[in-house]
């Protein structure tokens, strides 16, 4: 392995000595942070648990699944990084897995097979998510919840309704993880624009299914002079990215490795926000008043001493402080193509949101 690669891995995994924080993190001591992964033994859960074990911001890693948890937890626990790993294997242990969690990541539920839409997962995953969120409301009502389970456009509203019913709902703390859409948009854009992928940024707004995924290539950086045809093709590829993987896996599930990467990036952003790192910006499916829809994925900036903040992307700029959003980031002008995409996405997004709300409130 090349020396530079070894240095990179070491920089990712070495616990700061005496809790002195390294460059890129907060300027004070690294606080204790517990992260709980629900569905930790699954296709996403395993590599995501590995990546969270590599994150020096995590002090306690709770791995929960209804099957195969002990093996995954034993395996991950042998890695010589900061966090202490505990596996929780049954419904009776869910409360302990959640107790004291700062961030709960939920990749529990069934994945798609070729020919299915994400909405086809609703009947099974809605019940799983509802049960897990009831437990979150009971055992760690202040945790930041990162919802990965599909259909995200419905599972986030389900979670919100469960929390409302329990009296614990805080819209600043519930996130649909749409980071994989951003990851894909960046990768595909870099390939066409012939720019270094590490330098690319592309906001992706809307929701997390088909045409509700709205990459804003008009705002992609570094700028590139791409034709309308190329932008249309990039947009479609980003919207169909999940299906591309589902078909390539031919019945063996959906994106797991790229999703684990995306989930780890988003959870890391949550932890940085909690730790007071300024100017942390991510896209996420969060409660918003930007459109007439109750939920909308948007770029947000979060920081603060003890809470995480969201803001909506629509033509607003945000700066965040210790108590919430201080400044909303501007969306900037949408191209005609993006405006049209937004209008087209609204009915589907609305109906998926309503379906989730109806399920959770009936
Ligand atoms: N938001 C996003 O961008 C993405 C979301 N997904 C979604 O993530 C979910 C998980 O996908 P995979 O990991 O590939 O599936 P998987 O089937 O490999 O793993 C799911 C895991 O959840 C566990 N599980 C089921 N019910 C549970 C419960 N009540 N409590 C705790 N764990 C439970 C299972 O035992 C299994 O280990 C799917 O719904 C998939 O559609 C997948 C890729 C991207
Ligand atoms: O497509 C799926 O079913 C999984 C998913 O959400 C994605 O890969 O974006």
List the helices and strands and how they pair.
Elements: H1 3-13, E1 34-38, H2 45-53, E2 60-64, H3 69-77, E3 84-88, H4 94-98, E4 103-106, H5 122-139, E5 144-147, H6 152-166, E6 174-176, H7 179-193, E7 204-206, E8 213-215, H8 228-239, H9 241-249, H10 257-274, E9 280-287, E10 295-302, E11 318-321, E12 324-328, H11 336-361
Parallel strand pairs: 1-2, 1-4, 2-3, 4-5, 5-6
Antiparallel strand pairs: 7-8, 9-10, 11-12
Helix pairs in contact: 2-10, 5-6, 6-11, 7-8
This protein binds 1,4-dihydronicotinamide adenine dinucleotide and oxaloacetate ion.
1,4-dihydronicotinamide adenine dinucleotide binds next to helix 5.
Question: What does this 3D model show about the protein?
Answer:
It is a single chain. By secondary structure, this protein is of the alpha/beta class. Helix content is 41%, strand content 16%. The protein is built from 11 helices and 12 strands. It has helices spanning 3-13, 45-53, 69-77, 94-98, 122-139, 152-166, 179-193, 228-239, 241-249, 257-274, 336-361; strands at 34-38, 60-64, 84-88, 103-106, 144-147, 174-176, 204-206, 213-215, 280-287, 295-302, 318-321, 324-328. A 6-stranded parallel beta sheet has the order 3-2-1-4-5-6, with helices on both faces. Strand 7 (204-206) and strand 8 (213-215) form a beta hairpin. Helix 6 packs across helix 11 and helix 7 packs antiparallel against helix 8. The protein is globular and about 55 Å long. The model is unreliable at 1-27 and 303-328 (pLDDT under 50). Bound molecules: 1,4-dihydronicotinamide adenine dinucleotide and oxaloacetate ion. Residues 111-112, 118, 150, 180, 241-243, 245-246, 254-255 line the site of oxaloacetate ion (OAA). This is Malate dehydrogenase. One of its GO terms (molecular function) is L-malate dehydrogenase (NAD+) activity. Keywords: Mitochondrion, NAD, Oxidoreductase, Transit peptide, Tricarboxylic acid cycle. One of its GO terms (cellular component) is mitochondrion. Its EC number is 1.1.1.37.
């Amino acid at each position: 392995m090349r020396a530079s690669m070894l240095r990179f891995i070491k920089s990712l995994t070495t616990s700061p000595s005496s809790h002195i924080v390294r460059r890129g993190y907060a300027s004070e001591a690294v606080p204790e942070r517990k992260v709980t992964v629900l569905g930790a033994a699954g296709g996403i859960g395993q590599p995501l648990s590995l990546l969270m074990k590599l994150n020096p911001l995590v002090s306690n890693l709770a791995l929960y699944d209804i099957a195969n948890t002990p093996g995954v937890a034993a395996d991950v626990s042998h890695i010589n990084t900061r966090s202490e790993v505990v596996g929780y294997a049954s419904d009776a242990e869910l409360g302990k897995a959640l107790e004291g969690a700062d961030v709960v990541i939920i990749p529990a539920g069934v994945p798609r097979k070729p020919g299915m839409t994400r909405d086809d997962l609703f009947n099974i995953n809605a019940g799983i998510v509802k049960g897990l969120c009831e437990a979150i409301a009971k055992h760690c009502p202040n945790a930041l919840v990162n919802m990965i389970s599909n259909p995200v456009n419905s599972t986030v509203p389900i979670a919100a309704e469960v929390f409302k019913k329990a009296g614990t709902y805080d819209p600043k703390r519930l996130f649909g993880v749409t980071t994989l859409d951003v990851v894909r948009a960046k990768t595909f854009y870099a390939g066409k624009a012939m720019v270094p992928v590490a330098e690319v940024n592309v906001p992706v707004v809307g929701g997390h299914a088909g045409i509700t995924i709205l990459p804003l290539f008009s705002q992609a950086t570094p700028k590139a002079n791409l034709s309308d045809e190329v932008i249309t093709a990039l947009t479609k590829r980003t919207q169909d990215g999940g299906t591309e993987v589902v078909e390539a896996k031919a019945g063996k599930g959906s994106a797991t490795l790229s999703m684990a990467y995306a989930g780890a990036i988003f959870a890391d952003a949550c932890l940085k926000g909690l730790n007071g790192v300024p100017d942390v910006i991510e896209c996420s499916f969060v409660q918003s008043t930007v459109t007439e829809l109750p939920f909308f994925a948007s770029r947000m900036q979060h920081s603060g001493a003890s809470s995480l903040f969201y803001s909506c992307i629509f033509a607003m700029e945000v700066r965040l402080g210790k108590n919430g959003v201080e400044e909303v980031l501007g969306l900037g002008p949408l191209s005609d193509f993006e405006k049209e995409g937004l209008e087209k996405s609204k009915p589907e997004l609305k109906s998926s949101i309503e379906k989730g709300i109806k399920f959770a409130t009936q």
